[in-house]
Amino acid sequence: MEFKLFKNQIRFKIALALIDKEEGLSILQLNQLLEDVPQATLYRHMNAMFEDGLVKIVNTKKTRSGEEKFYAIYAETYKINEEEWNQASYDEKVNFVTFYFMYVLQAYQSYHKTMDGKKDETTFSLAKLHLDEDKFEDFQSELNALFNKYYEESEKDSNKERTVSLVIIP
Questions:
Q1: Which residue stretches of 19-78 are H helix?
Q2: 30, 49, 117, 155: least CB-packed within 10 angstroms?
Q3: From the CB of residue 59, how many other CB atoms can be counted at a distance below 10 Å?
Q4: How far is CA 75 from the centre of its chain?
Q5: β partners of residue 66
Q6: Per-residue pLDDT for the chain (170 aa), expressed as one digit of tens each?
Q7: 95 close to 5: Cβ distance less than 8 angstroms
């Protein structure tokens, strides 16, 4: 589990721009999205991120002056299984949680860009529940069943994609 991108604000911005962009983005496209980052700086950081295994090249296009590369997040770098989570240090866990929230932020930003004056229908909930261990286990089981029900249904149809984020701090 490597989170080298968190050590640098520009890399963090690049990763945020690349989340959910499986087709990748070119340096020119990134430069348009990240107007405050000079193009030469983007090239330097993308090369470093590529060398560190944080991004991958997913496509190339021939141009008059050479070849344009399209970069995407190397998602396996940011996934963690239960065993890795249990062995991770506190700092590694904080980095992973930060990446998780960065993903949620990107999903919101993408949604907000498509609103065109429509009402923002985003919802947030926070509840501090007082549950004993058995009730808490029941709650998690029921919640998991609900997520699975709708996840399985969503795979069958082509309705609009919706992001549902949930964090439980026991």
A1: 27-33, 39-51
A2: 117
A3: 12
A4: 9
A5: 63
A6: 455 555 677 887 888 888 778 899 999 999 998 888 999 999 999 998 888 888 899 999 998 888 999 999 876 666 677 888 888 888 878 877 877 887 788 778 878 888 888 898 888 888 899 999 999 999 999 998 998 888 777 666 667 778 888 888 88
A7: no
